[in-house]
Amino acid sequence: MTPPSDDTAFFDETFAGAPLMAILRGMGRERSLALATTAWDLGISSVEVPLQTPDDEEALRAVAAAATERGLSVCAGTIVDPAQVPVALAAGARYLVSPGLDPAVVAAAREHGIPILPGVATPSEVQRAVALGLRWLKAFPATWLGPAWFRVIRGPFPDVRFVATGGLDAGNAAEFLDAGVRVAAVGSALEDASQLPRLARLLR
Fold first, then answer.
1. What are the angstrom distances between the C-alpha of 147 and each of 32, 102, 156, 181?
2. Distance between CA atoms of residues 168 and 72, nearest Å
3. What are phi and psi of 176, to 5 degrees?
4. Which residue of the set 57, 111, 125, 138 is catalytic?
5. Is the pLDDT of residue 1 over 70?
């Protein structure tokens, strides 16, 4: 088995606090800033801005700058091409998230010295990631996999930590956390005033 990469220590520290992460997909600069502020004020320190359009790049720059003022870091998500890695870095991302596992993207991230959280959905993908030295992984789509997947996958891969992404909100995040997920990622729930108190309870 390949020894853990330096990414492991980074993610251990980054996700040591709140078990929730905010994903701000396609929201534009102002809305992204507003929801990032909502997340930070709530106690969610980890914020992801998916990088798919020039508008997303502008939003990432703004959110990353605001995060720096708070002593926090922001990640760039939906990294599916090695060419996105330097763009994300230039926009202020401190780490990367991918929907799938692409060794070329992982290699590009390492070449640029930025941690990456690739996505997996099968035991084979988890095994490939472990062989690459990765111990923190994104499980996507989480609601399709279901909480039971995480309980079962811990058997052969007890040292892997998962961030569950895809379809999570205040109503189901606790099920995934109870199943062993280390971090549950939420998105539109941050715009639902009725969900904010429930998210706050999860953080406690």
1. 29, 25, 16, 8
2. 23
3. -75, -40
4. 138
5. no
CB atoms within 10 A of CB 194: 8
- In the chain the domains, ranked by start, together with CATH numbers, are 7-203 (3.20.20.70)
pLDDT digits over 97-133, tens only? 999 999 999 999 999 999 999 999 999 999 999 999 9
Determine the Cα–Cα distance for residues 22 and 144; give it in Å rounded to an integer. 19
For residue 138, indicate whether it is catalytic: yes
The answer to whether 58 is a known catalytic residue is: no
Instruction: Determine which one of 13, 30, 48, 111 is catalytic.
Output: 48
Q: What is the pLDDT of residues 78-96, one digit of tens each?
A: 999 999 999 999 999 999 9
